[in-house]
């Protein structure tokens, strides 16, 4: 018996053809998009993935960089965790995060609150340029300038002597107690401008009506900051924390120029240990293991910090 076509069958066939056509067009556009992305993927693989994988492979060997290498498996990682000097280097990095990230973000938020309420004041543009200037100066130059400032006969000790505080003058970068905070303050000076520029850009994106509504409700400067400004800046705070924490964890050039990890190992950090072990003492495998651990630490810190932004966590 011949099959009888129903109205649904007659109208469904064209719909199926249209859906099939749309799927085909979508697949074609996806292939074109991947072709556009291919050069970036190739460069990413050559300059980032391959060195990372090769570094992990070297970390499995004991190698001085010249003679034949010896397979040691994960022993370099075990020694990295059991080495007290290396643990101290990671602790120093955590201390630097306070100076590179927490203090600059806090000060930049305070300055943003003040500057957003005085946006019509003359000279604010010049103030922003001055604060952002350390970001465009080479780290080597920054370290050299601050080394001169912290020197025993430097500007800082001269200033303290001039105001009657000669008793607390010292060679700051050579002092076992103050060397690490002194280096950290250089990081604070460098990072605060970046945080301030990010926050001022974020404040300009907050609707003016929210500030006006808060003021009509009788909110003062502090309440307006905590109810309008701070919630509106969460994405920018996440970005600022990510950039500044990563800068603190991978800091090398400031340390190398200012203190070379000294006095003793008081300012040694993981990135400096990578250089020191690879090029000074010929422990290339151990240096690669530290580099891989530092990469994982930065990756974890980045993921955790981005949870601050609710848009990223969804």
Describe the overall structure:
The protein is flat. The longest helix is centred in the first third of the chain and has 52 residues, at 7-58. It has helices spanning 7-58, 75-82, 84-117, 124-136, 139-150, 155-162, 179-205, 208-216, 221-232, 234-249, 253-258, 270-280, 284-305, 310-313; strands at residues 61-62, 70-71. Residues 1-8 have low confidence and may be disordered. With 314 residues, it is mainly α. The chain has a two-stranded antiparallel ribbon with strand order 1-2. A hairpin with a 7-residue loop joins strand 1 (61-62) and strand 2 (70-71). It is 75% helix and 1% strand.
Keywords:
314 residues, two-stranded antiparallel sheet
How do you describe this structure in short?
This protein has 314 residues and is an all-alpha fold. The protein has helices at 7-58, 75-82, 84-117, 124-136, 139-150, 155-162, 179-205, 208-216, 221-232, 234-249, 253-258, 270-280, 284-305, 310-313, and strands at 61-62, 70-71.
What about the largest sheet? 2 strands, antiparallel
Tell me the number of strands.
2
Rg result? 28 Å
Distance between the termini: 57 Å
Oligomer: single chain
Strand content: under 5%
Write down the overall mean pLDDT.
86
What is the 3D shape?
Answer: flat
List segments where confidence is low: pLDDT < 50 over at least 5 consecutive residues. Answer: 1-8
Order of helices and strands: HEEHHHHHHHHHHHHH
| Largest beta sheet: strand ordering | 1-2
How many helices? The count is 14
Percentage of residues in helical conformation = over 70%
Structural class: mainly alpha
């Amino acid at each position: 018996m011949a099959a009888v076509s129903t109205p649904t069958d007659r109208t469904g066939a064209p719909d199926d053809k249209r859906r099939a056509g749309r799927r085909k067009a979508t697949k074609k556009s996806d292939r074109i998009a991947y072709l556009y992305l291919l050069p970036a993927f190739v460069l990413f693989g050559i300059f980032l993935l391959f060195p990372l994988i090769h570094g992990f492979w070297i970390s499995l060997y004991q190698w001085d960089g010249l003679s034949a290498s010896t397979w040691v498996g994960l022993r370099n990682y075990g020694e990295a965790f059991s080495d007290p000097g290396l643990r101290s280097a990671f602790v120093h990095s955590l201390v630097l995060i306070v100076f590179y990230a927490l203090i600059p973000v806090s000060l930049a938020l305070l300055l943003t609150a003040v500057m957003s309420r005085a946006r019509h004041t003359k000279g604010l543009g010049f103030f922003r340029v001055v604060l952002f200037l350390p970001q465009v100066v080479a780290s080597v130059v920054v370290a050299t300038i601050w080394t001169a400032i912290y020197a025993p006969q430097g500007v800082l000790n001269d200033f303290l002597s001039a105001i009657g505080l000669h008793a607390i003058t010292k060679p700051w970068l050579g002092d076992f107690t103050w060397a690490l905070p002194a280096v950290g303050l250089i990081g604070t000076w460098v990072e605060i401008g970046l945080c301030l520029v990010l926050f001022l850009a974020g404040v300009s994106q907050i609707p003016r009506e929210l500030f006006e509504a808060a003021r009509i409700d009788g909110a003062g400067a502090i309440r307006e900051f905590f109810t309008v400004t701070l919630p509106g800046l969460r994405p920018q705070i996440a970005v600022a924390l990510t950039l500044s924490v990563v800068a603190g964890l991978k800091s090398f050039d400031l340390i190398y120029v200012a203190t070379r990890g000294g006095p003793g190992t008081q300012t040694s950090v993981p990135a400096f240990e990578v250089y020191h072990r690879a090029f000074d003492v010929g422990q290339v495998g151990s240096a690669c293991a530290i580099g891989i651990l530092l990469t994982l630490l930065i990756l974890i810190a980045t993921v955790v910090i981005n949870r601050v932004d609710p848009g990223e966590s969804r």
